[in-house]
Each structure stands twice: as structure tokens, then as C-alpha cells.
């Protein structure tokens, strides 16, 4: 078990001579956080923690991820409700990732069988996730929550697998850009809010 992995750092130029930066850490003996900062209006930290759990264990479904979900159940219930909002940040972020990253990258897979299976799985996830989130928002039962958790984990696993595969195949990631785990992160949102286009 890793005792103090660094999940992500970044630095962005927001204007000539002005830089913004961030660092996310996670201290672990039994994966207990130094600080618990999990926003309910985006998936940025969720993606980072999930990728770190995968990298640490080489298996996306592991004890640390399960514990993370249990420890942050209340936040994920809010995330699922916010995700159900089609005009909300999470829904738009995930739909953008599907349409502009996941499906186009999956479409470049050379093996025709793997390509068909991956595209079919992603297309189904893209359709099933909003329906599950809406069902949970309308009726927040344990069964609906479990379905949302399952689909979110499937989405994150697909995202991680494609990122890993494209990174290994191309030496960088077509999926997330060359500098980070995701291209729709804090830096991009900050620039967008400041009205600066990349």
C-alpha cells in the first residue's frame, strides 16, 4: 500500500505573467485523506482518485475504491442528483468526454472486435447513465443508488482503460491531452470562467 501518493499537480498560465496551480494529495495507511475535498458539481477529484486507485492496484475494482465510495456516500448522492440535471456541469462534462474523447478514441482501435465491443459498451453507458441518475434523483432508493454507483464505476473504468491504452500505444494520451488526467479540469474551467480560450 502506498503511504502518500501524489494524485495530481498542475500549473496553468491564465494571463501573461500570471500562473495558477494546484496539487492534490491523498495520504494512506488505509487510504485516509489528509483533506476531504469532493465537490458535488464536477467529477474532477473522482477521476483523479479513481485513476490513482487503479494505478496503485492495477485493478479498478478494489478495496480502496469501495472504501472511498462508502466514506463519501453523501457526496456521491448529491453528485448523482446533480448529474441528472441535463444543463448541469457534470452531465455536460460527461457528455463532452463521451462525444469528444471516449468514442472518437475507441473508434481508432485497430482490432475490429475490440473496437466494436468498446464502442457498443460506451454507447450503452452514454445512454444508461443519464437514465439511472434521473431515476435516483426522482426516487433515491438504495437500489437506484447502487445502479448509479455501478454505472459511474463503469464509466471511470472505461475512461481509465482508454487513457492507459492510448498512453501506452502513443506515448501520450489522446484522451486527456499530454499534461494531465483529464482535459476538462480546474485549469480549463478557470480559463473558461475568465473568458480565455485555449
Topology:
Elements lengths: L5 E10 L2 E8 L18 H14 L5 H9 L1 H11 L5 H18 L5 H27 L3 H29 L15 H8 L5
Antiparallel strand pairs: 1-2
What does this structure look like?
- β1 and β2 form a beta hairpin.
- It is built from seven helices and two strands.
- The protein has helices spanning 44-57, 63-71, 73-83, 89-106, 112-138, 142-170, 186-193, and strands at residues 6-15, 18-25.
Summarize the structure.
With 198 residues, the protein is mostly helical.
Number of helices: 7
Tell me the distance between the termini. Answer: 38 Å
Strand content: 5-15%
In what order do the strands lie side by side in the largest sheet? 1-2
Largest sheet: 2 strands, antiparallel
Helix-strand string:
EEHHHHHHH
Shape: globular
How many β-strands, per DSSP?
A: 2
- Count of spatially separate domains: 1
The helicity comes to 55-70%
Unreliable parts: 1-34, 173-187, 193-198
Gyration radius over CA: 17 Å
Structural classification: mainly alpha
* Average pLDDT over all residues: 75
